[in-house]
Each structure stands twice: as C-alpha cells, then as structure tokens.
Amino acid sequence: MDDFRVTSIVPDSDSAPITVRFIRKWLRNNNLCYVVIDKYGDAIQADVHYLDKDFFEKKVTLLSCYILDNYICTEAPASVRVNAHPASIHLGTTTSVTPTPTPETFPLHYFNFCPYADLPLRTEENQPPNQLYILTDYVGRLEDTTPSNTKKMRPYLRVTLTDISGPTIDVALWEDVLPRFDKQAMLDAEEPIIVAFTSLKVSIFKGYVVEKLQLSSTAATHVYFNPCVESATVIRNRFRDGDQHLLPPTPGSQTQHLRVEDRNRRTISELLHHQSEGNQGQVFTCVASIKSYIKGRPWYYTGCPHCPRQTYNTKQGWRCGTHEILPDPKFMYCIGADIEDNTAPTTATFFDDAAATLLGIQCKDMVLKYGMDRYRLPKPMYDVIGNDMIMQLQYARSIGNTSSVFSINKIFVRPPTMIATPPSPSQETTSTVPQLLPTKATAKRQLYQQEGTSDTKQRRFKD
C-alpha cells in the first residue's frame, strides 16, 4: 500500500489501496468533486455522483487522510481538469474509505503554478489540437480588491496581483467562488500578502486600445493567503526583500503597507530612464499635472456596449461591424495629454475611469452637455490644467512621433488642504486646526465596499 501512489493510477486500471489526503472539494453539475494528494505531493481528481453526494459529505472531512480502495480508475474529465494527470478516480458507496492518522509530513497543498510569461499559452485558443484544456494555478502579491459588475450586471470581485517578474494582472472571482475568498484571512495575513489561486481560466481581453491578459475563476477555484509551500515562500521572500522589480523599490515599501495611491512612487524622470528595461505591465504612481493636450487627438471614442469594438455613426444608426443598429454607443474617455512633474515632461493617455475621476463627470454626460465634436475640448478639461494629482500609470504605446507614452487608468484625488485664515486685529487670536479627514488607517473598513473602491488590507501598527 505504501508503494502505490497517485502517479501509478492510469485509466481503466484496477484500483489498489492508496493513502491520500482530501484537500479541496467543489460541485460540478451537482456532482461532488475532490482533489486528493498522496504523500509524495502528487494529486488526482476524484468524482462522486450526485446521488452519493450526501454519503461522502458525511464520511469525508477535508484535510484528513484516508485509505481508499475499490474505486474506479477512469479518464480525466474533459471539461474541468485541475491538473495534467491523465486519469481520475470515481468514488461510490462501494468504495472503501478508511480514516487513518495524518502524519505531520503529509503534504497539505497541491499547486502547479504557471509563470506569467507562459500565460498566453494557457488560453483555450492556444491549446494544441486534440489536447484537453487544463486549468491554471497562479500566484502573486495582493495589490487590490474591488467589487465590480459585468455589463450584464453579473457581480464579481476583481483581485489585482503583481507577478514576481513585475507585471500586474486581474483575477475575476465570480459570485459562486466568493465564499472561498476569506476576508478575515486576508486581513490577518502578514504582508507582503501572497495569494495562490487554483483552477483559473486564462483569456485575453481585446479592448479597443490595448489587449491584456486576465484570469477568471471556475467552480474548482480555491484561494489561499500566504500558503505554506516552498514556491510561494520563495516569492514572498523576494517581494519582502525588494528584488522583484527592475526599478528599485519605493523607499519604505517593504517595511510598511502603503496605500494604493502611494505604492511604487516614481518621478517621470525615473520612469523615462528605465523605460526600456522590461517594466511594461508594472503599475507605478506619480505626482504630476497636465501641461496641455495633444493636438489632433479626439478626447473620447464610441465603443460597442456588447463587445470591445469601436462603433461608427452611419445613416442606419450606430454600428460596430458585428452588432447592427445599436440604440446608443458606449462613450469612453481617451484623452491624450502632455504631463509633467518637477523632473521632466512626457505624454500620456487618460482612459475612462481616470478621466471621469479627474473631470468629475462621466463621458456620456460630458458629451450630452458639450456636444459630440470629438476634437473640440470641453471647458472642464481646461480647468484641470496645472493641478497636481496622483496618477496611477503604466508604460504604453507611443502616440504619433512621441517616444515616451504612459497610460493612466486611475487618478487619486487628494483631500483639500484647509488653510488657516489670519485673524483680523478685532478678532481674538485662536489657533486654526486643519480639518482632519479619516484615512485608511483610521477609518473603519467594510468587508464589501462599493464598486470602484479599494478593499486591500492595511497593516495595523501600534501607537
């Protein structure tokens, strides 16, 4: 029995007694699914018919060890495959399930993490012919969590991760998986917080301006914070020691958890200097202002509400080439501007969310108020010229003949500074205290915040 292991199981073979630990479970088409692992760290999927679900729910406790026998060895499932094992095992009421003491050395987790650079190869479109699609395990440092909704108002949690190689990527956790995202475990985790996701789908979002990788959950997805496995520990140590970036880490960012708007703070001069060093995909912040707008660039575009394509206003109505006669397009900001700080100027594109925050009005409302001329800039755009703001930016494609262009996807508005008015001679002299606004360190946190607000854990410090 001790010599039989998960790797010995092949489809249509006879069963043999094997000691395994049940480490995950989920439902697929009402059937119960498990991932079990042997003492060597190898895993295989186990399936239970829905008629036997209650039997196994009572018999098996997750993270406990059992000796299995009289199971059925079959082909790995064609739809949700959690790893590359060619076989799976089917458990029924005739299967022998005998509890056994769990040795301390018995593995607790199973992951097969995919490097960021290999993610494009894991999309369904890039799978070799006649090869079944295998779901992806991924790990990275937690940056932000944002409750969101799709265009069809399907709720999900957007989790932003930074890869050890530098790029960021979003993971969409659908509603059925949210109970496995333990908010309290996230709040209690020591920073830097490394998050491991299992059984994700990889896709490429083909937007009008850029294409980007994205991950999304499946029924088999599980979430782990700072998992105690060697690969995650190595990654965590590298983030903690600050050697994951080609650009030097923000001073102090490894000793305290900075607010999102303060992370990876750089000057424009620094960003331009390191532009060609493979930092594409990294997210930086910068305090800068708009100097002017790029001539000849439209300040918005019209997108299709049903797909990422641009729409065109024809005699028949709005059309994108795929969806015919749309009642209205989706108006999206795309503002090209010259920006500067006290070190250097450069060019950047403000995308929809950032521009809406900057201007205080949604793009559609701006168009309705100031007209549809895409090349005539509305007055509110001139009003913000010269105002310092915190920009969250990434390296992006150049515009026209410019050589250094950034995309700005988020703007952080600073609270107004309250300046004391000197008292007149007829007034009593009193000290004027600036208004104190609640900060993320002092304000009470909600477990689920409103859409578009950050929900990343902040470290607590003793007074």
TrEMBL record:
Pfam families: Rep_fac-A_C. Residues 454-463 have a biased composition (Basic and acidic residues). Residues 419-463 are annotated as: Disordered. InterPro entries: NA-bd_OB-fold (IPR012340), Rep_factor-A_C (IPR013955). Residues 284-377 form the Replication factor A C-terminal domain. This is Replication factor A C-terminal domain-containing protein. It comes from Ambrosia artemisiifolia.
